[in-house]
Design a protein that fits this description.
The structure holds two protein chains of two kinds. Chain A has helices spanning 2-22, 26-36, 60-69, 129-133, 159-163, 185-188, 195-199, 217-223; strands spanning 46-51, 78-85, 94-96, 114-121, 139-141, 147-149, 170-171, 178-179, 205-209, 226-227, 239-242. Chain A is of the alpha+beta class. Chain A has a single domain (1-249), classed as Alpha-Beta Plaits, CATH 3.30.70. In chain A, the strands form four sheets. Chain A has a four-stranded mixed β-sheet, with helices on one face. In chain A, strands 3-2-4 form a three-stranded antiparallel β-sheet, covered by helices on one side. Chain A has a two-stranded antiparallel sheet with strand order 5-6. In chain A, strand 2 and strand 3 (94-96) form a beta hairpin. Chain B has helices spanning 2-32, 46-52, 61-67, 69-77, 85-89, 93-97, 109-117. Chain B folds into two domains: 44-106, Helix Hairpins; 107-153, no CATH class. In chain B, helix 3 (61-67) packs across helix 4. Classes of the chains: A alpha+beta, B mainly alpha. At the A-B interface, helix 1, helix 2, helix 3, strand 4 and strand 5 of A face helix 1 and helix 2 of B.
Chain lengths: 249, 153
């Protein structure tokens, strides 16, 4: 009895030492964060504004996103949809998105219908259904309002893919973990705009820092009638659309 | 004394097992839970820095302006003022870091121009569009319009 207890204690002691060994990687991380210093996630709240009346459907944003983020072929972190609505038939719009609008759209000469383009991306919701269903804490809402994925934690269980009401997530065909728009977190935290906004020729889409009082987003939100996608889902989306038609889903 | 020990051993033994189990749990937990888990919420705080460390490919127009003063000025005064350099030239961060290491794409005008300006009734009316089959066919767009400042006066 005594011997086994001693063995147990010995084993526990060994584990303690191993545990202590595992901890040191906390130090460099803390030092790294302190050294960079300049970016404090608590001082920002990121979102985007999209002006439907400025979108020309050129596909620049889709291509830029794919290049910047190595998005695999046939998968999209952002894409463009063309809506075609006949008269007041809001329930049955014709929606097309050939290759996500990556190479633009076949030109239309139809003049009897209402047509427009709707760029879409992750809405970086403040009450994200995707975050709520993740069983392992692999997807989360960062302090600066960006929904991100921890690839090393993701099991690839697809709960979040199912939960997202906007269809913004996919399983990366090589990594087999979930992948999505990061709102170019690696750019916006360095003072750059997102790749899609950089490449947009008409400023139809503009990055917004809702916590920065000098950001033009405040004027935009004050002076325009805006709407988010699927407001009835109560996701508190931070992608605000101007001139959004009721037919858009 | 002896008797008292004998009576309580059935309590001490499970208590020891419980304590050993608790210790084991704490040790294993300290070992497998990453240090930054819980720093900001129910996730690994270090992910933020990991995502931030990804490479930038689009340098941004302000970076180009630092070297290409002339192009920036010409474009800034023309109708393509809102179109960023890399919207036409493609991602060029590597070029901006070291101009010799990589040359940005120098797009052939006509296909590039048509990508934005081809007539399409789905495009907003304010945007200037042409039917490229009817608008000066057989010529390159850049023969008449300068790419960086396209208006003809």
């Amino acid at each position: 009895m005594d011997a086994t207890r001693r063995q147990i204690l010995k084993g526990a002691g060994l584990l303690l030492i191993l545990g202590a060994r595992a901890n040191p990687d906390a130090a460099p991380e803390a030092a790294g964060a302190a050294a960079e210093g300049a970016y404090n996630p608590h001082e920002h709240l990121w979102g985007m504004t999209i002006d439907i009346e400025k979108c020309i459907g050129c596909g620049n944003c889709v291509r830029a996103c794919a290049q910047e983020n190595d998005v695999p072929e046939e998968y999209f972190r952002t894409w463009i949809e063309r809506y075609e609505i006949e008269g007041g038939d809001l329930e049955h719009p014709k929606v097309s998105s050939p290759d996500g609008g990556k190479h633009g759209f076949p030109p239309s000469s139809e003049t009897t219908t209402k047509q427009f383009f709707v760029p879409k991306l992750c809405n970086h919701c403040q009450e994200s259904p995707c975050v709520q269903v993740c069983p392992v804490g692999a997807t989360f809402d960062s302090p600066d309002g960006v929904v991100l994925v921890d690839e090393s934690y993701c099991l690839g269980c697809r709960y979040c893919v199912q939960a997202c009401p906007y269809g913004c997530r996919y399983i990366h065909p090589k990594k087999m973990t979930v992948d999505k728009c990061t709102l170019c977190y690696h750019r916006i935290t360095k003072g750059l705009t997102t790749a899609c906004c950089e490449a947009c020729p008409t400023q139809a889409r503009v990055l917004a820092d809702l916590k920065n009082p000098a950001d033009p987003v405040h004027v935009f939100l004050r002076e325009n009638k805006v709407q988010v996608l699927k407001p009835h889902m109560a996701t508190r989306s931070k992608v605000y659309y101007r001139a959004l038609d009721g037919a858009v889903r | 004394m002896q008797g008292r020990w004998k009576d309580s051993i059935h309590l001490i033994r499970p208590a020891a097992v419980f304590l050993a189990g608790l210790l084991l749990f704490l040790v294993v937990r300290a070992y497998i839970v990453p240090p930054t888990f819980g720093q900001y919420g129910h996730y690994r705080g270090a992910v933020l820095d990991e995502v931030r460390a990804r490479p930038v490919k689009y340098a941004g127009q302000e970076t180009c302006a630092g070297c290409h003063v002339e192009e920036t000025e010409v474009k800034g005064k023309g109708k393509h003022a809102t179109v960023a350099c890399e919207a036409c030239h493609g991602p060029a961060a590597r070029h901006a870091d070291d101009p010799g290491s990589m040359r940005p794409m120098k797009p052939e005008g006509t296909a590039l121009c048509a990508g934005c300006h081809e007539m399409d009734t789905a495009k907003p009316k304010w945007f200037r569009q042409v039917n490229t089959k009817e608008h000066m066919p057989g010529m390159k767009c850049t023969e008449c319009h300068a790419a960086h400042s396209p208006a003809l006066h």
